[in-house]
Amino acid sequence: MTAFPEEGNTVRRFSREQKTVTHEKEARRGSDAGERELIEELIGVNRVAKVVKGGRRFNFAAFVVVGDGKGRVGFGSGKAREIPEAIHKATDQAKRSMIRVPLRDGRTLYHDVNGHFGAGKVILRSAPVGTGIISGGPMRAIFKALGVTDIVAKSIGSANPQNLIKATLDALSQVDSPRSVAARRGRRVSDMLGHRAISQR
């Protein structure tokens, strides 16, 4: 009789489908848990007006920085008729645009970097333990979301928050760890640092 093999196949198929659904649920739970651990910093909300036929239409523009406190950070902006919706859009965009920045000992940069965007220019310098975050405005929000606890940052030129944020992200995108530099040059990490003992991250 063919009924028993078919029943067995059905059971096996159901078992595989059940496992797949379970794995998908676990993946979603893991993703939700990861999002709950993100640090969200609201940089600001501006009221913007658009001239249309019959008058002006007002919207709100929100700017948000998101990070995991462990070397990942992103920036996003969003516009909407209501402030909560604008913040939600900005947060979603920030999550999608996150970049990874290698951190020395999980607290500062491996080396000094400069960044610019438009008329905004920034200088970021690594700092010893206990220095703290020496910077202000939106730059401080980025470092907090990134997980940096010791850094000296200076802005030159435009004080526009968006320019400062994008200039800071431009600088952070240039940070390299000794390991990645050594791999790119085909050398050992100890060779890159004069045989000094370092924490490889």
TrEMBL record:
<dbReference type="GO" id="GO:0003735">
    <property type="term" value="F:structural constituent of ribosome"/>
</dbReference>
<dbReference type="Pfam" id="PF00333">
    <property type="entry name" value="Ribosomal_S5"/>
</dbReference>
<comment type="function">
    <text>With S4 and S12 plays an important role in translational accuracy.</text>
</comment>
<comment type="subunit">
    <text>Part of the 30S ribosomal subunit. Contacts proteins S4 and S8.</text>
</comment>
<keyword id="KW-0699">rRNA-binding</keyword>
<feature type="region of interest" description="Disordered">
    <location>
        <begin position="1"/>
        <end position="32"/>
    </location>
</feature>
<dbReference type="GO" id="GO:0006412">
    <property type="term" value="P:translation"/>
</dbReference>
<keyword id="KW-0694">RNA-binding</keyword>
<dbReference type="InterPro" id="IPR013810">
    <property type="entry name" value="Ribosomal_uS5_N"/>
</dbReference>
<comment type="similarity">
    <text>Belongs to the universal ribosomal protein uS5 family.</text>
</comment>
<dbReference type="InterPro" id="IPR020568">
    <property type="entry name" value="Ribosomal_Su5_D2-typ_SF"/>
</dbReference>
<keyword id="KW-0687">Ribonucleoprotein</keyword>
<dbReference type="GO" id="GO:0042254">
    <property type="term" value="P:ribosome biogenesis"/>
</dbReference>
<comment type="function">
    <text>Located at the back of the 30S subunit body where it stabilizes the conformation of the head with respect to the body.</text>
</comment>
<dbReference type="GO" id="GO:0005737">
    <property type="term" value="C:cytoplasm"/>
</dbReference>
<protein>
    <recommendedName>
        <fullName>Small ribosomal subunit protein uS5</fullName>
    </recommendedName>
</protein>
<dbReference type="InterPro" id="IPR005712">
    <property type="entry name" value="Ribosomal_uS5_bac-type"/>
</dbReference>
<dbReference type="InterPro" id="IPR014721">
    <property type="entry name" value="Ribsml_uS5_D2-typ_fold_subgr"/>
</dbReference>
<feature type="domain" description="S5 DRBM">
    <location>
        <begin position="38"/>
        <end position="101"/>
    </location>
</feature>
<keyword id="KW-0689">Ribosomal protein</keyword>
<dbReference type="InterPro" id="IPR000851">
    <property type="entry name" value="Ribosomal_uS5"/>
</dbReference>
<dbReference type="GO" id="GO:0015935">
    <property type="term" value="C:small ribosomal subunit"/>
</dbReference>
<feature type="compositionally biased region" description="Basic and acidic residues">
    <location>
        <begin position="14"/>
        <end position="32"/>
    </location>
</feature>
<dbReference type="InterPro" id="IPR005324">
    <property type="entry name" value="Ribosomal_uS5_C"/>
</dbReference>
<dbReference type="GO" id="GO:0019843">
    <property type="term" value="F:rRNA binding"/>
</dbReference>
<dbReference type="InterPro" id="IPR018192">
    <property type="entry name" value="Ribosomal_uS5_N_CS"/>
</dbReference>
<dbReference type="Pfam" id="PF03719">
    <property type="entry name" value="Ribosomal_S5_C"/>
</dbReference>
